[in-house]
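User: I'm preparing a small set of examples for a lab meeting where we compare how different chains pack in three dimensions. I only have the primary sequence for this one, and I'd like the structure in token form so I can line it up with the others. Please keep the answer compact; I'll paste it straight into my notes.
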Amino acid sequence: MKYSLIVIVLLLWVGSSRSVAGQSLQGRLYTDTIHGFRFIYPAHWHIDGPPSEIIDRHGIPIVSEVRFTDTAAGSFLILSWHYPPSAEKLYEETSRQYQSHTGWYASGSDTIMVDGRRALLAKTELLTDGKGRALASPMQRIVTDFMAPKDKGEIQIQLSGTLPQDVLERDMRTLLSSFRFTAGDAPTKAGK
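Assistant: Understood. Below is the structure token output for the 192-residue chain.
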């Protein structure tokens, strides 16, 4: 039974239009042909199942997410693709927070280039959980937001963990240096 479940999961994963291609010394290549991008991630990270869609109350996808985990370091990465028209609104709000040093950008921020696109990078530290209880170890979070070409979507990448912030930031910048948009096959509308 255990092996049957593994085979089914592998078949679903291999049949997906988002895939992981062979390993290199630098890591593994993640490719998303639906949205049109790829990047290299560390070989010791694991994809936490297939990408998921978040839908609105009308059943229209508004966000597609894929999650990665580094079980050794206890860190995780969430890559979210926000569909138009909410993508533009989200990026506008993110830009306002960046400019006013509020929200994600209150503790530290930077602008970087991701495949020729301006990206906003935030550095935050969480000291409490969602219920206001103190965390045993502070949770560091690096967040990057940027628009896809032709404003076909907004990409937000969050890297979180208890590693020192400079280590997470280095890992995020390394990942982003390999991020590339591929052929213009990204949907212009949710699910299209």
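A couple of notes for your slides: Residues 1-25, 188-192 have pLDDT under 50 and may be disordered. The radius of gyration is 17 Å.

User: Perfect, thanks.
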